Amino acid sequence: MIRYVVWRVVWLMLLMMIIFTVLYFITSMTMLRHWGRPPYDLRAEFLLSYTRFLDYVHGILTSWNWGVTGIYDESVWSFAWQRMWVTMRLNLLALAIYLPIGIILGIASALKKGSWFDRGVSTVTMVFGSIPHFILVLLLVVFFGIRYRIVPMQFPGFHIDDTVRLLKGLAIPMFALCMPPIFKFTRLVRAEFIDAQYDDYLLLCKTKGLTTSQTMRRHTFRNCMVPVLPELAPTFIFVLGGSFFVEMIYGIDGVARLIFDSLLVPFMDRTYMIIIDIPMTMVTTMFYAAFGLVFALLVDVAYPLVDPRIRIGAKPTDHQ
Questions:
Q1: Three-state DSSP class for 274?
Q2: What is the number of structural domains in the chain?
Q3: What tens digit of pLDDT does each residue of 294-313 get?
Q4: Residue environment code for 58-84, b if the CB has 16+ CB neighbours within 10 A, otherwise e
Q5: What distance in Å separates the CA atoms of residue 46 and residue 280, rounded to the nearest whole number?
Q6: What does the buried/exposed string (b/e) look like for 167-193 if buried means 16 or more CB atoms within 10 Å of the residue's CB?
Q7: How far apart are CA 243 and CA 174, in angstroms?
Q8: Which domain, by its residues, includes 211?
Q9: What are the φ and ψ backbone dihedral angles of 235, each rounded to 5 degrees?
Q10: Full-model pTM
């Protein structure tokens, strides 16, 4: 287990280095080609990008200096960290909502298969879960924020002291982010629980005197959660990508605005110019990559917690 985690951390760092290198050269050479003067010399552009890349990496490794943003004229890391924390809290809060709700609704629908509750949950989750994040949050803002003024038209921020206003401000982004994964996990858990009701081990548990609740808690729930874990990491990354549009539309002061501003700069009237702020682009993109990869690693480590029979990284001969 420990050896597996160490190797996964090593591979994660290697993958981050590859993403970092490729991203830097793409953005750097794009800016040189876009704003440079012809004739273009690909070899000279690469050598210039390579020299700047070494200096950039040296600054990060020695003093954690990610550069200075050209838009806000501040240290990239100190400026972006506050926005990163907003995006992390938004996505972790969404995870804490859609995962238990999806599991609970899936179990309840399986136990009441064919009832009005089962049909109602399937219909509601399917309708809202099939709408993309950016369309759903736009509809919610128009109807509940602008039209009826039930919730704020724009996110008030995590720093406010008014708890009621903060909860109202979280209603739209949480609903928009959570409905698609709730629909996914509800259907997945429901199908697993229905299939588990016909397994032979349930009959064995009943012959040993276990009640239905004991069998579900000790065996059925644990066995049905094993197929759910592989879907957790891609779902989290999917929601993380959807949070970009939610932040932009609902005015959440997260990483999404930094990415947009680091790629497009307003010019004159209703037009934008492609001017890549390389330090800001590097920080924000690496944040999304690191956040998703670390979460995937944590999901892999969580397998033995769900089912102790699973030994992560063990060879087939280790189970004999």
A1: strand
A2: 1
A3: 998 888 888 777 666 666 55
A4: eeeeeeeebbebeeeeebbbebbeebb
A5: 21
A6: ebbbebbbbbbbbbbbbbbbbbbbebb
A7: 10
A8: 86-236
A9: -65, -40
A10: 0.86
